[in-house]
Amino acid sequence: MNPSKRNRRLSLAILGLGVLLPAACSTESAPTANASARSTDPGPVVGEERAILTAPPMVPPPITRDHATKLIVDLEVREFVSEIADGVDYTFWTFGGSVPGSFIRTRVGDVVEFNLHNAPDSKMPHNIDLHAVTGPGGGAASSFTAPGHTSQFSFQVLNPGLYVYHCATAPVGMHIANGMYGLILVEPVGGLPPVDKEYYVMQGDFYTEGPYGEEGLQPFSMEKALTEIPDYVVFNGKVGALVGDDALSADVGETVRLFVGNGGPNLLSSFHVIGEIFDRVHQEGGSTANENVQTTLVPAGGATIAEFKVEVPGTFIMVDHSIFRAFNKGALGMLTVGGAEDTLVYSGKQDDRIYQPEGGAVQVMPGKGVAAAPATRTLEERLALGERAYQANCMACHQTNGQGIPSAFPPLAKSDYLMADKARSIQTVIKGLSGPIEVNGKAFDSVMPMLNLSDDDVANVLTYVRNSWGNQGDMVTVNEVQAARAAH
Ligand SMILES: [Cu+2]
Question: What global pTM score does this model have?
Fold first, then answer.
């Protein structure tokens, strides 16, 4: 789900300013006194206010009050169809209209009055189990809500930390698989240390009837969910929810705090930011901080707080380091850091020269001198061999159906750039490509490596690519590939 547009506006619309009332107003607040047995005494509950809720990747502002309060939360369950990937629709069930659901920020000792609304046009009843609740079912039994109804219950947050909440209505797995999870933060007495940027990122795995990238409305597949082999693993509800214009951002010198959750329903996340080291990780969302961490494990139904300072500019890619999920199933987001270079911390590429381990003799490129392939093939042969060459050499980046990944790998399917110039497309495959290009109106500025393919392979793969996924072109021949090699 794209967090930037409708959801963000909706959640901002329900922001309420805290209304402070005299302490005496609320009799339910009385039980708080016994929480004082803890070493970090949250003190008595004073007044009441309405919780600020935000859609991902935004986080409500830090809590500045120095006392516990009665905190009123209004969360509406909504079911709707939205894109899980470009061109692929899915029926999401949501807490607050986004996946993950609205971020709830509380302070230890707060008494939360929770109002769970289920929209009148919902088809299913829903409830909520908050891991921050001390009590049977985490609130599930008290919050079971039919469409068009509201349930109210209240609980006191006794333990600071970052907690997952989720729907727990049967079939529980299906409600979670459809996007019904989010995070609730319980700040300790005195709050969290201040940082410059805070963001909300939550992973989830999705199971669809059609394979990854198959267009149209995709129903939930119970069979795939049971075997725990998802078609999609995404951050914030959609492939590409956190890339390009929707990437997280920070400036050099700033400190960043990521509230990272994993809704599952099945997979564990090996959360990693490429090119960054977490200075501090509150593993499992708890109070102990580990330092200098590369990859942190976020269990299904668990969370982590990762903090780091950004020292150099560039694009930092967030992944689930179970890496096929990142490059082939969607678990990839971006943090864009602006500001001045620090070449001592990171130099960038300083030199590129020929490496000759055997001395200065003539280098033989792999792929040449192999048994000669026939110079002529039928179109059918090239298409069949080209499909295999595509899967072996191109698919990891350009994806199963040539759809690419927004802002990272351009599409080959219906690519105007590809189809406009056959000779250029041959050059791209034999020499690689870098620098800014525009494909179907979208800008890319990245690097495609040089691939050491034989002339026959290049002819096959380009014949295949130029005749697949809506592209229509003529055959690419070995002669044309040889001419392209000679031209440069
Ligand atoms: Cu539900």
Answer: 0.67
